[in-house]
Amino acid sequence: METWMRFLSNDDRIVFGKVEDGYLHEHLSLEHPVPTGAVLPVSALKALAPCAPRKVVALWNNFHALAAKLEKPVPAHPLFLIKPAESVIGAAEPILRPAHYAGKIAYEGELGIVIGKRCRDASVDEAAESIFGYTIVNDVTAAELLNENPHFPQWCRAKGFDTFCCIGPAIATDFDWRSARVVTTLDGVERQNYPLSDMVFTPAEQVSMISQDMTLEPGDVIACGTSLGVGSIKDGGSVSITIDGIGTLTNRLTAAGDTARQAVPAAASAV
Amino acid sequence: METWMRFLSNDDRIVFGKVEDGYLHEHLSLEHPVPTGAVLPVSALKALAPCAPRKVVALWNNFHALAAKLEKPVPAHPLFLIKPAESVIGAAEPILRPAHYAGKIAYEGELGIVIGKRCRDASVDEAAESIFGYTIVNDVTAAELLNENPHFPQWCRAKGFDTFCCIGPAIATDFDWRSARVVTTLDGVERQNYPLSDMVFTPAEQVSMISQDMTLEPGDVIACGTSLGVGSIKDGGSVSITIDGIGTLTNRLTAAGDTARQAVPAAASAV
């Protein structure tokens, strides 16, 4: 198993590569994972989300245990919403409470699939080949907005705020999801502990079926949905999600005004 | 009023600028509209969507006439879904029927707001300043997928397919939306003809309120929602949407296999 991460160097360059024994072995990109020859000590770098998705496709109702609790049938096709690129933050970055929202904010510990190759109308086998690796996602939700309007469930709004898609700390390749569990702690207390083998659609099935709905690009992330144990985070509270083999993703919820908003390097803008 | 367009040159370069009397006066970008000095005859260029949004925010229920017909109250905050960047095509490009979907495909003629400056938690005045200009959007929908699953309305899936967000042909600045109408024809027959003054949230209000939900980036598009007269397009059918002062956006629905999928230049990919 290999561990891939993405960092900001102290000369403000974004670097991506394989991490071994405290050193980053830089590679050109996730799409072109060719070594550049550069080797950098991780201690001198600031961790970012391990990829820069153009979009995050987030699933609802993809675990049998949660479907049973909600008394909903499992779906025939993945049910999803889109979280925008601007919602993505990395491990240890703060989740920021929206300035105009005082309600409950929920955590959801999830497995994340990271796409490695452009993928469109892919078979399950082709889809499996297009997966670069796996990461951890905290699919944060402004819970009270979801059904605020009785005529239109606001999935994209409730889950799309800046900083509401925590991804990290790393991407693991050759990861055996069938034997792994997602363990979420809130302020040190375990709240979620569920097996990934309970998923309705396997990762390759998700990628295949979603690639029939839209082209998936290198770096895009599919958040596989959550299971039992979702709850809300108090301001100042800290959520840690651990998947053995990938690592632990920790983020703290910060109320507006408690911290200056972090400056994030702008993505390349096209005309 | 100025007209801005984006093209592919015959040496495969993306060029953006102001169009006057059949010539493109190239500018650096939408975010930095500084003349490069180059002047190119439009006849030698292939038109693209006039901007390359990272995301398209598409509103539902933003016209009083449609709300009345649907017997829904007008909302207190814009209700929206996100269409991914991969769904965007320009004028004259084909809308492609998804390979695994044989159902109804609907057109929706809409005004599009094009963001010019990064915009977050903006007041209505700041929001007005962040608008670069206005374009036309055909917010295409795989209508039968929307409520296919009774437990989860699939807005992002039904409206997110590749080629399901037609944008163009141009961006008009200093456009007086209050006096303009959206006129949609299907195979030459008028189907929509509604005044933009009937909008629930004005463009600046939309940008302000949505900027409280997520950061809007230069080139992002808000599709302002549609009004009465939505209908479905037969394979081979052609939809033209005209807004005086912006132009006419025409796209034809093409069944799979009728045409090779157009190669679209990949956006810059970040690691």
From TrEMBL, chains A, B:
| Fumarylacetoacetase-like C-terminal domain location | 55-253
Matching entries from Gene3D superfamilies are given as:
Fumarylacetoacetase-like, C-terminal domain
GO MF annotations for this entry?
acetylpyruvate hydrolase activity; metal ion binding
Mind listing the UniProt keywords for this protein, alphabetically?
Metal-binding
Membrane-spanning regions, if any? none
Q: Does the keyword section mention Metal-binding? A: yes
InterPro entries found in the cross-reference section:
Fumarylacetoacetase-like_C, Fumarylacetoacetase_C_sf
Matching entries from Pfam families are given as: FAA_hydrolase
Iron-sulfur: is it a keyword of this entry?
Answer: no
- The name on file for this protein is Fumarylacetoacetase-like C-terminal domain-containing protein
Q: In which organism is this protein found?
A: Paraburkholderia solisilvae
